[in-house]
Amino acid sequence: MNNVKKRRLLLNKIILVLSTLSALLGLFFLFWILITLFLKGVGSLSFSLFTNDLVDGGLRNLIFGQFVMAFLATIIGVPLGMIAGIYLREYGYGKYANMIRDLSDIMMSAPSIVIGAFVFAVFVVPFGSINGWAGAIALAIMLIPIVVSTTDNMLSLVPKELREAGIALGGSKHKVILDIILKAAKVGLMTGVLLAFARVIGETAPLLFTSGTNSFWTTNLNNAFPSLTVSIYNLANFPTDKARDLAWAASFILTTIVLVINLTGRFIIRKRKIK
What we know:
Blueprint: H1 2-42, H2 60-91, H3 94-109, H4 112-124, H5 132-156, H6 160-168, H7 173-184, H8 186-201, H9 205-208, H10 228-236, H11 241-274
Helix pairs in contact: 1-11, 2-5, 2-8, 3-5, 4-5, 5-8, 6-7, 8-11, 10-11
C-alpha cells in the first residue's frame, strides 16, 4: 500500500513539474512576442499614422475599416447568437439541443480560412468582386457560435429559483426571460460579446478573399474595403523597410486594441465576482 501511495505521489509531482514547465514555456513565447511587437512597433509609431491613409503612409483608413467590419459582424451575429443561446437554455431539451450545442462547438473550432472560402463562394463570386459586406458576414459567422456558447453558459448560471419566482408571479415564459433572466445575466453576456468582438477584430484569413483591403479612405462596402489585418499581411511581404515598419506599427496597434478589449472583459468578470 505504501508503494502505491509513493508511486501516486511521484506521478503527481512529475505531472505538476511538467504542467508548470508547459505554462512557463507558453508565457515565455507570449512575452517574447509582446516584447518584440513593442520594440519594433513603438519605434515605428508616429502621429501621422492616425491622420493619413495607407496611400499616404498612414493607417487611418485601415483602422476605420477594421472596426466597421467588426462592428457590422457584431450587429449581425450578436442577436442571432443570443436568440440561439436563449433557445438552447430555456426551450431546447434532449438530443436536438445537444446536437445544436455540438454543432456550435464545431463551428468555434472551424478554421477561419474555411469560413472565408465559404463566404467567398456565396457572397463574392455571385457579385463578381470582393466587398466589405462579405468580410463582415465572414466575421459574423465566426462570432455567432461564440455568442451562442456564452449565452447558453451565462443563462445556466442564473438560479432556477428566479425562473420559478417569475412564473409564480404570473409572468409568461418570454416575460420571465426578458425581464428577469437576461437582466440577471447581463454582465456575463456583455463580457461575452466583448470577448467575441476581440476575437473577430483580429482575424485575417477570412478577409483575404472576402473584403481584401483598400489603400484609400472609403465607406463603400460594395467594393474592396480597408482592412488592418490584411494590410499587415501585405505590408510584411513588401521588400522595402518602410513597408515592414508600417506593418510592425499596425501589428502593435492591433495587438493593443485586442488586449484592451480582452482585459476590459476580464475586469468586468472579476468585478462581478467580487460583488
